[in-house]
Amino acid sequence: MKSLFFSLTLIILFTLCQCKRDNTPSTGADNFSVKVRLPEEPSRLNPMLSTTFIESQILNLLFLPLAEYDPYTLEYKPYLIKEIPDKQVIPSGQEFAGEARYQFEIREKAQWSDGNPVLASDYLFTAKVPFLPQVNATAWLGYLNNIFAINLDESNPRKFEVIVEKEYLLSIEAATNFQIYPKHIYDSEGLLDAYLFQDLRNARTLENSLSNDSILINFSQSFISDQYSRNTVIGSGPYVLDLWETGQYLTLSKIEGWWGEGIHEETSLFIANPNRIIYQII
Fold it and tell me: Is 277 helix (H, G, I), strand (E, B) or coil?
């Protein structure tokens, strides 16, 4: 969904990594930092709600999708998942017969910045949110509307399948190319557990009674608030938000022992060089 933005961001960042370091005296690689000047301040750091390239630059270092285009080879590579699966046509006699099925498994090493594992339930939660009342995620809906159902594997919390429209040319991107949120942070009470993905999807389309559901409305209002756009920003990327001084700067710090280290030979997507990235608002 944001492949072009992500690729441009990586190329810019890698270039900066080679040619610009912090003016603070360095005593070794642990002090490697990069300063990036921003022409304006981000309004929020919430992938589903953010709309500017500046916000995307930062968010792509904090949140990860299941898969992404490698900026060097332009191949579609697995990120949070182990591999890019083949499309399987659902046989007659089964629900959604004639449509396509993708089966995924999240990497065992993948974890959130607070140390919790990334699970299939995080994917399901993320896919539900754009369909909620008052969550203005128009760009995401353009892709997610092509998903008919999401089924979790009861025997493995990292496995799940996604049912998509067979003829949709970007079906694999629709199923994998959006940034995943940690359910245990953004829905710690499990408020969305009682709602099926299909019901929320249809409610958005048909404007039925779920559109006036007080639980969903209250959740939506909380999700779009500053609490989850400034104060709480938790992802599975190599960096965490350290400081946000309004009108002055934002600072990201690389996670020590980030789970993506050691598997970067698979794709340049896993390369994260600077220990600090300082976004100066000028």
Answer: strand
Select from 215, 227, 276 the least CA-distant residue to 249: 276
Helix (H) or strand (E) holding 59: helix 53-62
pLDDT at residue 225 greater than cutoff 60: yes
User: 211: pLDDT confidence band, cut at 50, 70 and 90?
Assistant: low
CA–CA distance, 71 with 269 (Å, rounded to integer): 8
Contact between 238 and 260 (Cβ < 8 Å): yes
3-class state of residue 127 by DSSP: helix
Annotate 92-112 with DSSP letters as a single string. TTSTTTTSEEEEEEB-TT-B-
Query: C-alpha dihedral over 97, 100, 102, 103, to 10 degrees?
Result: 20
Which residue type is seen at 181?
Answer: Y
Coil, strand or helix at 87: coil
| 54-58, 160-164, 208-212 — most confident range | 160-164
Place of tokens 């697995």: 78
Which phi and psi angles does 275 have, rounded to 5°?
Answer: -80, -25
Burial class (CB in 10 A: 0-12, 13-18, 19+), 247: exposed
| Whole-angstrom distance, CA of residue 279 vs CA of residue 282 | 9
The sign of the dihedral angle between the CA atoms of 126, 130, 134, 137 is: positive
